[in-house]
Write a structure and sequence with these properties.
With 213 residues, the chain is mostly helical. The chain folds into 2 domains: 2-15 and 136-203, Orthogonal Bundle (Endonuclease Iii, domain 2); 29-131, Orthogonal Bundle (Endonuclease III, domain 1), CATH 1.10.340.30. It is 60% helix and 0% strand. The chain has 12 helices and no strands. It has helices at 2-12, 19-25, 30-40, 45-58, 62-67, 70-77, 83-101, 109-113, 120-131, 140-148, 157-167, 173-186. Helix 1 crosses helix 12, helix 3 packs across helix 4 and helix 6 packs across helix 7. The two termini are 23 Å apart. The relative contact order is 0.14. It binds a DNA duplex (11 and 11 nucleotides) through residues 37, 40-44, 47, 79-85, 117-122, 139-140, 156-157, 190-191, 213.
Amino acid sequence: MVLALTLIRESVRDMRQPVVSELVQKGKDPYLVLISCLLSLRTKDATTREAQRRLFDEASTPEEMVTLPKEKIEQLIYPVGFYRNKAVVIKEVSKELISKYNGSVPDDIDTLLTLKGVGRKTANLVVTMGYDKPGICVDTHVHRISNRLGFVCTKDPEGTEMALRERLPPDHWKEINDLLVTWGQNVCGPISPFCSRCPVSHLCEKKGVTVHR
DNA sequence: AAAACGGGGGC
DNA sequence: GCCCCAGTTTT
């Protein structure tokens, strides 16, 4: 499994990196990581890119965010999916951060999970990307590829998270999401993966098949 | 035109 | 565990 990840890392090197990488390079602000996650929920990474830039241009702290009217946030993040609901959630979370956590973002998974709109994927990403603490972020790319390559065999993403936590050495945890998202977008997609350009297709248990959809 | 896409929450 | 949520993208 680690060998497979090493080979994947090699071929991912020159690919366009996902949005989260940009945030990391911009100083790993946990608040931006969090809001970026909420914005990306159930919508493709590429389509949230511009919306993210527009939103953060107007507000990049909880204090700035709560001053924006709901309609303004909606307008800024359009046309990402669920934009109406997301505007509400983003504002509520920002309020909650101010009233309960002095405007800062909690740094442990259990506390993060109590926030509105925050589930395991978001909580893990904030902790690993924002605070450089151990966590495994399982989105559909990580889930699908882990199952297709036979790293794990579980129906639900939480099972994948737990299994990876046990089987994968901690020094790979921080990278796993970034790596497999890029991999999933460019090679190992959900519908018709490009197995011909995959360096680990020889050890893939479910080459070419659609997994868990 | 229709199906695919992608996390969280409520039941 | 099942089903819904809304809107864009892909087929």
